[in-house]
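Schema walk-through. Below, the input block comes first and the output block second. Nothing else is stored per chain. Lengths vary across the set, and this one has 305 residues.
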Amino acid sequence: MRAQFVLSEIGVGLRRNLTMTFAVVVSVALSLALFGGSLLMSDQVNTMKGYWYDKVNVSIFLCNKSDAESDPNCAKGAVTADQKKQILADLDKMTVVQKVSYESSDQAYKHYKEQFGDSPLASSLTPDQMQESYRIKLKDPEKYQVIATAFDGRDGVQSVQDQKGILDNLFGLLNGMNWAARAVMAMMLVVALMLIVNTVRVSAFSRRRETGIMRLVGASGFYIQAPFIMEAAVAGLIGGGVACGFLLIARYFIIDHGLALSEKLNLINFIGWDAVLTKLPLILATSLLMPALAAFFALRKYLKV
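--- output ---
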C-alpha cells in the first residue's frame, strides 16, 4: 500500500466532512479530558487519604465534674488518678497503638481558646469544664474499633472518638464527585463514538463510487478501509492532544498559578506534575485506538468490502 495514497485520502476525507470532524475532535477532547480528570481526582483522593489518615488520632475523653452531673457515661463521677493510670497501662500493652499523648484540661482549654476564641461560648467556659484526654496514634488507622471496644463505657471514660470518621465523610463526598465526573465522561464517550460512526458512514457513502472502482480492480478490503480508519484515528488523536492540553493547563492554573490552591490550601497535599504526565500517554493511546476501532466495526457493517 502506498503511504502517499492513504495520506491523500485521509486529507480528502477530513476536508469533506469538516463539520463532523470538528464535532468528533471536540467530543473526544471533552470526554478524554473528563477521563483524565477523573483519574487525577482518584489520585488526589488517595494522596489526601495517605496524608491525613497518617495524622488522625483516636481520642479517649475522660469524665470531669461537669460530666458527672449531666452525662450518663460519667454517672460514677469524674475520672480518678488510678483509673487514668490503668487506662494508660492498658494502652501501652496494645500492639495497635503507636504513640499515646496526654492532654490536660488546662491544655484543652488553651487549645480551644486558640481555635475558637472569637465564639460567644468561649467566654463562658472555664478550664475545669474541659475534658482531659488521651490522644492515641494508631499504627493502622483502620483499627479504631479495637480502641473503642476496649475503652468505650469504662469507668472514667466519657467517650471514644475517631477523627477518621470526619475524614471519611469528606472523602465520601470527593469520591461521589469523582463518580459523577465518570458518569458524564461515559456519556461523552458514547456521544463521541456515535459521531465517529456517523462520520465514517457519511465519508464512506460520499466515496462509494471510488470504493466500488477499487473493488472492481481487486483492491483488498484492508486497502479500502485503511483511509477511513486513519481519518477517525487522526481526528481522535487531535482530540486527545487537546484533552492533554486541557489537563496541563488545568493543573498549572488551578494548583500552581491562577487560583494557586497549593498556596491557599497548605493543609492539602496536592498531586504533582508526575501524576499528570503519567496519564498523558494513556489518553493519547485511547484517543488513537478508540476512534480507529469504532471506525473498523462501523465499516464492517456499512462498507461492503
